[in-house]
Amino acid sequence: MKQVVLIAGGSASGKSTLVEGLALRLREAGSSVETLSLDTYFRRTDPTAPQVWIPEENVHKFDCNHPETADVAAACDALDTARADFVLFEGHFALVHPPLRERSTLSVYLEVPDDVRAVRRILRDMKTGRSGGSLEAIAAYYLASAHPGHLKYVAPSRVYADLVLDGTLPAQTLIDTLFARLKLNS
Predict the structure, then answer these.
(1) With contact defined as beta carbons under 8 Å apart, do 6 and 106 qualify?
(2) Residue 108, by phi and psi: left (phi above 0), alpha (psi -120 to 50) or beta?
(3) Model pTM?
(4) Residue burial 97-126, b: 16+ Cβ < 10 Å; e: rest
(5) DSSP character for 41?
(6) Is 16 exposed, middle or buried (0-12, 13-18, 19+ CB in 10 A)?
(7) In this structure, are residues 163 and 105 in contact, taking their beta carbons and an 8 Å threshold?
(8) Packed helices 15-28 and 171-181: angle between N→C axes, nearest 10 degrees
(9) CA-to-CA distance for 54 and 184, rounded, in angstroms?
(10) Which residue blocks in 29-134 are alpha helix, DSSP H?
């Protein structure tokens, strides 16, 4: 029977890093693993998708920090059709949407202080060019969208987690903790 693990948390909380490390560990233990990201199901090109006003740039931008940005039906379909022993599904809204939660066998929330996530996000976005790549653009988007979206939608979804992990701990510690909670097929 496949196990679906939902991993949620704020932007730059370490969700992707945890999924990558856990997937490797599970494969080394002989399990098949499929990894999915809710970001893949964002309605980025849909003109009806949520937008956020960025006053510093005098522009509306796609708001990836609003739950309605995700095509939840498509994400659920991907979870339903996955054929691995473990399906690791990460996204900051993974615990927000009831249809996703209903499919999980284990739900995890990575708790990371806002200031730590903000610094991680700035460093990541400057390195990758996300959010425009400039410090000003990254900060403007963070203040207009990422931080308010986290407070309004993501942080409250923590109550749905079976397991809350301290996302400031080393990645290997988190991987070991989560791996120990999973039931491996013998």
Answers:
(1) yes
(2) beta
(3) 0.92
(4) beebbebbebbbbbebeeeebbebbbeebb
(5) G
(6) middle
(7) no
(8) 60
(9) 46
(10) 72-81, 98-102, 114-128
Whether 132 shows a pLDDT value over 80: the answer reads no
Q: Residue 153: what residue type?
A: Y
What is the tens place of the pLDDT at every residue in 49-76?
Answer: 999 998 888 889 899 999 999 999 999 9
Fill in the amino acid letter for 183: K
Rounded to an integer, what distance in angstroms lies between the CA atom of residue 38 and that of residue 22? 17
C-beta neighbour count of 83 within 10 angstroms: 8
- What is the band of 186 on the pLDDT scale with cuts at 50, 70, 90? very low
Q: With H, G, I as helix, E, B as strand and everything else as coil, classify residue 32.
A: coil
Tens of pLDDT, residues 23-54:
999 999 999 999 999 999 999 999 999 999 98
Our measurement of the distance from residue 174's CA atom to the centroid of its chain's CA atoms, rounded to an integer in Å, reads 15
Which residue is it, tokens 């990254």?
Answer: 138
CA-based nearest residue to 118, from 105, 96, 93, 135: 135
The DSSP result for 11-77, as a single string, is: TTSSHHHHHHHHHHHHHHTT--EEEEEGGGGB-TT-TTS-EEEETTTTEEEE-TTSGGGB-HHHHHH
- CA 170, CA 82: separation in Å to the nearest integer? 29
Q: Tokens representing 79? A: 């979870």
